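Researcher: Re-running this chain for the archive, since the previous output was lost when a drive failed. Same request as before.
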Amino acid sequence: MTPEEAVAEQERLRPLVVPRADPGLVVRHVAGLDVSYAEDDRLAAAVVVLDAASLETVDEVVVPGRADFPYVPGLFAFRELPSLLTALGKLTVPPDLLVCDGQGLAHPRRFGLACHVGVVTGLPSLGVAKTPMGRFTPPGAARGAHSDLLDGGEVVGRALRTREGVKPVFVSVGHRIDLDRACAEVLRLCVTRLPETTRRADSLGRAQLR
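Model: Regenerated C-alpha cells:
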C-alpha cells in the first residue's frame, strides 16, 4: 500500500468510528498494545492482557516482524497494525478493551492507531500518548486533573494527570468508548505515569528485540 492509498483507507474507515461506550460496558480484561523497534527495520509487537481489578497479567503475546511501510506522519498505524493484529489473534484471554500506545481521534484525520485497531477488531479501544497532538492548558497538579486537548478548535482528547507531580498523558477515544470512560479506565490502570498495560507491553517488546 502506498501512502496515498493509506490515506484513502483512513478516510474510508473513519466514518465507522463509534465515539461512545456501549450501554453496560464492563471491562474485566484490558489489553495493552505496544510496538518496539530495533535500529534496523525489525520490530516486536507486544500485547499484554491484565485483570482490570487486580492489574495481574493474565496473558501476553509478542510477535517479531519487520516494518514494511515507510515512516510517514499520520500513517503510523500502517507500520504497526499488521503485527499487532497477529498478536491479538494469538491471545487466549479475550480483552474487553484495547489500550494503545498512541493516538485515537487526536490525529490530523481523526483516525489514529487506536481508532484503526478498534474499527478493524470491533473492540472498544483508546489511545494514551506521551506527547500531545494539539494544544492544551496544563491540568491541575492532583491525580485525575485534566484539561481539553484541542486541534483546530475541536476537542480531540484530554491531558490527564495520572499521578501527582508527573507530566500528564494524552488520552483520546479510539472506538466504542467515550472520553470520560476512557480517562476513568486509564486512571485505574496507572500506578506510575503510564498505564500498566503500556509499561508491560513495552517491556515485553524490548525483551524480544534484545
